[in-house]
Amino acid sequence: MKRIFWRVLVYFGVVLVAFSVLIGLLFTRFNRSNIVGAYKDQLSSLASSVAIRTSEAVKDKESDVFQNYLKVIGDFGDMQDIDIWVVASPEGEASLPEDYTNVDIATVSVPDETDRILKSAYGGKKKSYSDYDAIYHKKMLHMALPIRNNDGDVMGAVLASGPMEMMENTIVQYQKYMLICVVLGLILAIILALYFSRQLVRPIIKIKEFALVLASGKYGRKTGVKRRDELGSLAESMDTLSDKLVEAEEYREGIEQNRRDFFSNVSHELRTPIAVVKGYADTLADGFVEDDEKRQEYLNRIRKECGGMERLVSDLLILSRMQNPDFELNMEVLNVIAVAQDAMRSIRILMPDKNLTGTVTYDDACSLIKGDYDRIRQVFTILLQNAVKYSYEGTEIAVHIARENGRVIASVTDVGSVIPEEEWDNIFQKFYRASNHGEKDGSGLGLVVAGNIVERHKGKISVKSSEEDGTCFFVEFPETSENIS
User: Cα torsion at 387, 390, 396, 402 (round to 10°)?
Assistant: First the structure.
């Protein structure tokens, strides 16, 4: 990241330095043009006024008065360190009379450039130039413009010459101040480049460090970068990634815990029946049982234990699938009454052994929920199997469906063994057997499976049990307003 910092610093600094230098050069050039232009305008104005006054004097034939004017102009020029020449045109009939001139240009050796602008003035044009002058031994600004008579003919020219020394000094002073400003600007540019480079690179460094933290497996951290730009969006995306990784890690841990629980439960619950089966099998294999009736009893017990193990493994597999968040339910709109009646028809085959009867009643024929038909049927099947198992002979198992406050409530009631109130919550835990279980077969997982199915349907399952009212399991599901397709 240091490379990025220095690269950004150099790029930003170069831009600011180039901008500062360019501004300095432009202002220097502009100021120089203004100073020279102002001085040129001053000489032009002075030369123009002399040309007008000369033209008027020639018109009024005031040679004597004009000579006094030329002296005054000369004194003024000496004060301003400016030379003003009034010269006659060497050609033409309207040439300026000698009495109205103060320099005979023919007797003076002038630089070629000065001669050029004088010829331009004789031709009716105003010209100027600045350069080192051999006559004055300094850099001078020369301005030449024509003198015209009343007919507009050129009679001569006014040549105003002023030193550029003061202007150059002013320009040099300005350039010094501008150089100071540029240097200060460069220092300020470097400081700003450092500041903005750090402001730009700092969140990148934080995001890089955050990525390394994520790579190390610490998913609960945040970047801590709050900006309203692309870097802020990147940091927000990284924070979202962190949240997703936390969810994925929790999901993975949940899957792993389910796997461990499954194998732990299987190994724990199968240990006893396997030991029993092995004991009976070893006894039969070693020939210790010679009586045919006794041998058949042992075989029946082995068959019973194998059936129990089969039910246990089946319940564990179902429970494991239901606890897996990836397990998808086949959701559809269904009538709870029809599901309960379907389950009751399947269970009635078990009722004659104990002379039991089963009924399904309801308050509203249209008790609709959104759920998985097979899983909801499995809930009723589990509850009805338990009811058959624990009911007294000759009693009734009643299923009632009701609607209340946007929920469909199904109750399964039997008259039989009472579950103590302190055990009502425990019976929905894995492998828990109520104290009234006795010698009845069961894996202790049926109600756990039912509870998980109900929970996946955003419902609730509970139980109440007493000698007077019997044992009643209540299952609640959210009611749906959709129609059966």
Answer: -30
